[in-house]
DNA sequence: AACATAATTTTGGCATACCAATATTCAAAT
DNA sequence: ATTTGAATATTGGTATGCCAAAATTATGTT
């Protein structure tokens, strides 16, 4: 049967045994990109794609659900499926493809703005929560994982404090990119037994102080400096003995 | 044709009967919440849920795909499905849920930073492209759609010029949120016959001038002012006669 | 008792078949 | 010629059944 051949080929070419519906979904995205459909336009039917890819309609249907959850299409019973959003970058960039330093640069710019936005509107509850996280960071340095969780929690809590869901969403996305990035994990693993954590903890304290004062520009500067420190530290680490990171060091600190 | 209009109205105002798999998916989320499973724990099998909800396994399977796309669970063939993330911290919003002004605020902060990042590293080709887009914007004001496309193109080209994929990815995401937002479409539709476009075109020119000078802070300020103008304009428009926008006007300009 | 391995069960993967809602076509009535 | 409405076709919705991978259990060997 034809679909078995396809299945075998794909499982050979792609290392990770992805679920087939994902492949179909990605293929459909490519087809959409090629045909350059406009928002609102009607997509080919499930049956058409099924025949095109040589799979059952069930799989195409599952792929459609994936695209629907991603808010790329809208499915209407008895009518068809329609383009809802531009697919743009949703397909092209995998988290594993971004360099740690371009991610850091983006975080430096965006998170310092977020800190500035949070300062005027932050609540006492938010400030207390940040203090609690700082206490955890001060006391508990057991595992790298725990420290990382607290770190993430601190930064995202500030984003939460802006009361702007878009900013929170953006920050969360950046941290997801970070935590899912293999290169960053490698870099991060090297820091676990150094004293850089103390430096960063101190940075966090400075940020919180500015937030307490509701000083927007002070918070922006404190967060910017914190991420500058992180950037410098990681740059040194990658500079000393890391031939592995060749090609991932674009967008290095340039200040 | 008359029924088309009716069809459009119903699809916009009256939420289409949700697809069953969504209901099942939400129910499963509730079940997970009740049973308070930990990350990594194994979920009940598809067959169990099928019997529990009195539906076929196909539907449960589709619901599982939904949860998998939402990165809430992980599905392993022959083994089972496992909790991947805690649903309490799930901050995934629908684009349609964000208010135009919180989106604008986020864009103002992030895009002005992006402009600043682009200034030192922008290439001559990028500058030429921006000039071309400006020419298009100056000449061709035929349709709102075309103008919007050019606008998007201008802003995203600057993000592209940063040579930072994360920043480009972020900016693209923000514009996708904008273009997919029904409230923004309503607001935007009101501007089509005003002269605000000239104002914004002038803003764009100012941004380009700063980019040409490779003046980071100048570009940041120009972009910030541009989006400030947009914010003010849209705020006036929504203020005058727009009872529809109640509840969407949080995160208003506060400068 | 231990380990290895074969048989069995469990579990998700995928396809087929039929159902229901929507859209289209076409013929009959005016 | 237009309108109406029933017949038909199209399209997504759902259920059932069988397949393959993984996990488990049973069994045999040392």
From TrEMBL, chains A, B:
Keyword Transcription regulation: yes
Record-linked CDD domains: WHTH_GntR
Keywords: DNA-binding, Transcription, Transcription regulation
Keyword Transcription part of the UniProt annotation: yes
SUPFAM superfamilies cross-referenced by the UniProt entry: GntR ligand-binding domain-like, Winged helix' DNA-binding domain
Domain HTH gntR-type: 18-86
Signal peptide positions (record): none
InterPro entries according to UniProt: GntR_C, TF_FadR/GntR_C, Tscrpt_reg_HTH_GntR, WH-like_DNA-bd_sf, WH_DNA-bd_sf
GO molecular function: DNA binding; DNA-binding transcription factor activity
UniProt protein name: GntR domain protein
